Amino acid sequence: MKIVMDEQQYQELEDLIGIFDGMFFDDEEVQCFKFIKDIVDREFDTDYINKERKELMGKQLNESFEWLESLNVNIKNKDKFLSCFLY
Question: What is the pTM (predicted TM-score) of this model?
Answer without folding.
Answer: 0.90
